[in-house]
Design goal:
- The radius of gyration is 26 Å and the shape is elongated.
- The chain has 21 helices and 14 strands.
- The chain is α/β, with parallel strands linked by helices and 513 residues long.
- The chain has 3 domains: 3-130, ATPase, nucleotide binding domain (Nucleotidyltransferase, domain 5); 148-304, Nucleotidyltransferase, domain 5; 325-512, Hypothetical protein af1432.
- A 6-stranded mixed β-sheet has the order 8-7-6-9-11-10, with helices on both faces.
- The protein has helices at 3-9, 65-68, 73-92, 104-108, 112-123, 132-146, 182-186, 192-204, 222-234, 249-260, 264-268, 281-295, 307-313, 318-321, 325-337, 343-351, 364-376, 388-398, 406-421, 438-458, 491-503, and strands spanning 27-32, 37-42, 51-57, 97-102, 127-129, 152-157, 162-168, 171-178, 216-220, 246-248, 299-302, 468-472, 476-481, 507-512.
Length: 513
């Protein structure tokens, strides 16, 4: 039995191979849900999951489950076509390991096992029909992989079920699965009033939901992500990244109640509503508004990571799981986009005196951002010089990174801008400024200006910076340069050093030692 099979088939979700065991090669996940079937292929089972292929087919397997207790016949046909294609793609793309998991529809349908047998015969892949407990725990693992210190309630809304898991500072607590998926409710034949009663009844039976009061609901699932997109558009929100997007619970509930009352034609006119979600959106909104009422959470935060990322995260060694997703992701992005990825270590050491006790100082959280900024400092190098600053800003804002809040994204984007542009303000920054405190805007500007000096001094090459050092005193910022490397100094270096010093309200000087 492979490591992957032991992890998914084992009686305990946390049963895993020896700590140092790693799954090498490309890793594929086929997710067979109540509404969709999806194939995602990752470069490997890594802390920073990078998809190289992602395709979804809206099969609707659970469309008739409430009425007939069986999978939808047309949905079976669509799913089988998609799954045969997926199995061919897995071979074509040399995927080393594949996990095929099925959730509520297949688990609850009378013919679910029969369907699984047909799929396995047609694809040659083993289907793992997850229990409700496993589905909830994988959803929670997915959230933790992207938001390691998550504290609140995970809510993963699929087509057939809702999984809820209590998280306490990154540790999983109790979990439950409830038959409240929009597709299942849609096929129930119940009136809106009856559906509301069913939803409230289900929540009343979860006695630990009151633990969520004043905390965060981590929202997972396509329907709830669609609601977040609408909220973004309503508020003209500038960072169009759903992961870690936050809404006050009162605003999320008000929006959900509005969506509940809209018909398909009205919903279809909303630009940010996917046409594939029109039928499910009102019921998904109803579940959200009632869940907020039942839990009394303070805010709703979107997690783009869910069950699939949880399955992937569960394959990692304990050491890999403990790694910071932001730092791993920034390092991975650097390997793809910058000239010398390993340069980040020299940059981080060189910048350190500016943020030490004699400089601006920094918390552990701020140090973490400095390290990430050093990884991302050169991502704009390959475009025309006139566009590098804005390119770096936009790339950072939209980068596929986890473990980073939207305010932290803005901080890192600002560092990238100033690294190329100097002290000027980005004309298109607009209401992004409101996401950061004035102190953090200043810190980002200083960090960007310092990186600008560093890249000018060494021409983005490795091996020069260790022969130089920044020294901060009460009145002066000094660049000490060893005599062997004094030729690297020049007019442009001194000009940019002066700009950095002015940002710190200091005088600048260069000293040969």
């Amino acid at each position: 039995m492979t490591t992957l099979q032991r992890k998914i088939d084992g009686s305990e979700l946390d049963s895993r191979a020896e700590p140092d065991a790693r799954i090498e090669g490309r890793f594929g996940i086929i997710d067979i849900g109540s509404n969709s079937v999806r194939l995602v292929i990752y470069e490997g089972a890594k802390r920073n999951p990078v998809p190289i292929f992602n395709e979804k087919v809206m099969a609707g397997l659970g469309a008739q489950l409430s009425e007939s207790g069986r999978l939808d016949p047309e949905g079976i046909e669509r799913a089988m076509r998609a799954l045969k294609r997926f199995s061919a793609l897995i071979v074509q793309l040399d995927v080393e390991h594949t996990a095929m998991v099925a959730t509520a529809a297949v688990r609850d349908a009378q013919d679910g096992v029969e369907f699984a047998t047909e799929v396995e015969a047609a694809t040659g892949l083993k289907m793992h029909i997850l229990s409700g407990k496993q589905e909830a725990e994988y959803a929670a693992l997915g959230v933790l992989s992207g938001i390691p210190e998550a504290d609140g309630i995970v809510g993963d809304l699929g087509g057939g079920s809702l999984e809820l898991v209590d998280l306490k500072e990154g540790v999983r607590g109790k979990g439950v699965t409830l038959p409240l998926g929009p597709l299942r409710l849609l096929g129930s034949g119940l009136s809106q009033k009856e559906v509301l009663k069913e939803i409230d009844k289900a929540f009343d039976q979860v006695e630990w939901l009151d633990k969520a009061q004043g905390r965060t609901l981590y929202a997972v699932g396509g329907v709830w992500r669609n609601l977040a997109r609408i909220h973004m558009a309503q508020n003209d929100y500038p960072v169009r990244v759903l992961h870690e997007y936050q809404m006050p619970a009162s605003e999320a509930a008000d929006l959900a109640k509005l969506i509940e009352r809209l018909g398909p034609k009205s919903l279809a006119k909303i630009p940010d509503v996917s046409s594939r979600r029109v039928g499910a959106l009102p019921l998904g909104a109803m579940v959200l508004s009632r869940l907020i009422a039942a839990t009394k959470v303070k805010k709703v935060e979107v997690s783009a990571y869910g069950l699939r990322e949880g399955v992937l995260f569960d394959q990692l060694s304990e050491a890999d799981r403990a790694n910071d997703p932001l730092l791993v992701g920034a390092s991975d992005l650097a390997r793809r986009l910058v000239r010398f990825p390993e340069h980040r270590h020299e940059l981080a050491d060189w910048l350190a005196p500016l943020f030490g006790p004699d400089g601006l100082g920094e918390t552990e959280a701020q140090k973490r951002l400095r390290l990430a900024a050093c990884s991302l400092a050169d991502i704009g190098w390959y475009v025309h010089p006139d566009y590098r600053a804005m390119h770096a800003l936009e790339q950072t804002l939209l980068a596929p990174l986890a473990g980073v809040t939207h305010a932290e994204r803005v901080f890192l984007a600002r560092v990238g801008f100033h690294r190329h542009e100097g002290a000027g303000e980005p004309a298109a920054f607009g209401n992004l400024s409101g996401l950061l405190a004035d102190e953090e805007h200043h810190r980002a500007r200083v960090m960007g200006l310092a990186l600008r000096v560093a890249f000018t001094l060494c021409a983005a090459s490795i091996g020069v910076l260790p022969y130089t050092r920044l020294v901060v005193t009460k009145d002066t910022l000094t660049l000490n340069v060893q005599r062997s490397h004094q030729a690297f100094c020049g007019e442009v270096v001194e000009k940019r050093l002066g700009a950095l010093a002015r940002a710190l309200d200091l005088q600048s000087e260069r000293v040969i030692i």
